[in-house]
Design goal:
This protein is mainly beta. It has 2 helices and 9 strands; from the N terminus they run E-H-E-E-E-E-E-E-H-E-E. The relative contact order is 0.09.
Length: 213
């Protein structure tokens, strides 16, 4: 069981799209709405579009959209206020809607291996997020994360970041920060208090700063 699915769901709790389903039709959304399963798995389905009707699935707590062909998420994703886990890893997302900040109960958020160049300012509203994966994107900066006081693990590796905001390193629960393979020129002193700090591959740092802490 992966970190994204903290409990082992029964088959009855999962609405699982088959790999042959390349379109999440309104009929399928309606079927999921009637079933009210808390888990929706639509990974590796070659989905190119997530329909606005996804916003009708207010009961969802876990949504897995990994390994698809999504380039965007609809504004209606922000109506899924009961989501605890959202995984959109291995897609082609270039931007996120401002409404993503409405997912105030989200605890696990995986956006790894997309094409994000920036995050909306509303990202800072995800005050319950504990585990956040933003690695393997194209991010050049990070919005204000100072309200993410529950954040424990943050992956930012393989982006284009030139600095880490000291406010990130001061988050009270943060223990694990991976900023390897970026373009960092300096590292805030606050970062070295973290239980696990990974700086490998930032060629503009001194050799001593490339080590893991």
């Amino acid at each position: 069981m992966s970190l994204y699915w903290p409990a082992c769901p029964t088959q009855a709790e999962i609405f699982h799209l088959s790999a042959s389903t390349s379109v999440l039709t309104d009929d399928l959304v309606q079927e999921a709405e009637k079933g009210r399963q808390p888990y929706l798995r639509a990974n590796a389905c070659y989905l190119e579009v997530l329909p606005p009707t996804i916003g009708r699935l207010h009961h969802l707590q876990y949504l897995d959209l990994d390994n698809n062909c999504l380039t965007s998420l609809p504004d209606e994703i922000g109506t899924l206020a009961n989501l605890l886990t959202l995984s959109v890893r291995d897609n082609y997302l270039a931007t996120l809607p401002e409404t993503i900040g409405n997912l105030v109960n989200l605890q696990f958020f995986d956006l790894g291996r997309n094409e994000l160049t920036h995050l909306p300012t509303t990202f800072g509203n995800l005050v319950q997020v504990r585990w956040l994966h933003l690695g393997e994107n194209r991010l050049t900066d990070i919005p204000d994360f100072s309200r993410l006081t529950e954040l424990q693990t943050l992956f930012l590796f393989d982006n284009a970041l030139r600095q880490i905001e000291p406010s990130i390193c001061r988050l009270p629960q943060l223990q694990h920060l991976d900023v390897s393979w970026n373009c960092l020129q300096t590292v805030p002193e606050e970062a070295y208090r973290l239980k696990n700090l990974i700086l490998t591959g930032n060629m503009e740092l001194s050799d001593s700063e490339h080590e893991e802490y």
